[in-house]
Fold this protein.
Amino acid sequence: MKSFDMKNIDPGNLGDMPLDDFKSLGNRFVEWICSYFGDIASYPVLSTSKPGDIRNALPGNPPEYSESFNDIIKDLDNIIMPGITHWNHPNFNAYFSNTGSGPAVLADLVTAALNVNVMLWKTSPSATELEETVMEWMRQLLGLPDGFFGMIIDTASTATFTSIVAARENVPGLNIRLKGFAGVEGLKPMILYCSDQAHSSVEKGAVAAGIGLENVRKIKSDENFSIITSELEKNIRADINNGKLPFVVVSTIGTTSTTSIDPVPEIGRISRKYGLWHHVDGAYAGVVSIVPERRSLMDGFENVDSYVTNPHKWLFAPIDTSLIFYRDPEKVRSAFSIVPEYLKTAESSETIDYMNYGIQLGRRFRALKLWFILRYFGRQGLINRLRDHLRISLMFRDFIEESEDFELMAPVPFSVICFRFNPGRKISDEDELEKINSDLMEKINSTGKLFLSHTKLRGKYIIRYAVGNINTNEDHIKKAWELISSSAEAGS
Ligand SMILES: Cc1ncc(COP(=O)(O)O)c(C=O)c1O
């Protein structure tokens, strides 16, 4: 047998980083992270980089030979850090504020070291069984009905897409999984319902599942930005009468713009009445049902088929950590499962192989970070932190309401406050108000002291202040209000 030529291989230059180097560098990076966490408040929250700054500072060609970590760390500090927008900053109040907490960061380090692929039970029994365990813990903590099956997925967008496919396959007599749309004779347009406030991931899910954007019905919401259920039912009836095929309704607990809550119990009843799948998107606010006085968020879940909530939004987990729960996991399994010969195992009849419940084969060991978070903070620690966020959010809401120069633009059921500056509440021209408020937000964001984001509600430009970082406290709220009100006054 011909042996391979060693001519171009340097045997002294094989293998991984030596363990001694790993240890000293590992210690150095833990120090680095500690300094970062300790000093985070001194960084500008929003990066001041201009497009191309970072790319232009990086070499266009890959390194030919090994480089020293001293040089790598220098570039991390000097090139990468200036282009970081600090999501872990207590004054990151844009979008949905979130946290990569200490215990979860440590878990991610271990996860990378173990490098487990949680596709089959056999490919790491601990990873699968820990995921089963923490998902059951989460089911109990959230107050979901007994028997809901949960798994960890990358994002709410994937979870919603997966649920739409499961809903599509749940329609009797179609079997699009097997035949494709073209293979179902006389197939009527399949209709998905959500509110006009639903997240864009619902539409993306409809695109990816082959439903088509024209078949997404965005039902009108009321003055509180919650879906109007009579409109929902009216639309379902009209679609049936017009020869369409309604198949799924998506409700939201905590919509993206205002965090409004759809009436899940009533939507569940309507879904059941017409035989539709009911998916609930609680990506941001769902975790709040851990707090006992907010447990009513789970009312009506007897008529929910799938539910997503994201610990990477408001439960102190770094991205990506999203939880999807199914009432009947068999419906999802039968929609997705394909097991080629090389993935067959002797244990499959008595174990969970998570690859069967969605699009991914390879899956990260995400249960570890959830486990560390739940054990480190405990239920009481989580409740306490969420409660305090809810409390200080109301403080901020009160600052807005008590000012004669600001307007509160939506109710505050959770930790996002929608407001705008309107001196003396006298300006009625929407274009003028948009200009004033977008200038104000730019001005505040450019200070680096606060990062806010905006939305539009029924044509009105609105600034959002989102609370959710584990280190955001009453003091941050007061200082944020001082900065916002003084910037507004200085500009008016
Ligand atoms: C209500 C809602 N659903 C879904 C998503 C999408 O979340 P993800 O980034 O996990 O896909 C968001 C993102 O902000 C959201 O606000």
Summary: Residues 381-491 form a domain with the Aspartate Aminotransferase, domain 1 fold (CATH 3.90.1150.170). The first helix runs from residue 19 to 39. The first strand starts at residue 149 and ends at 153.
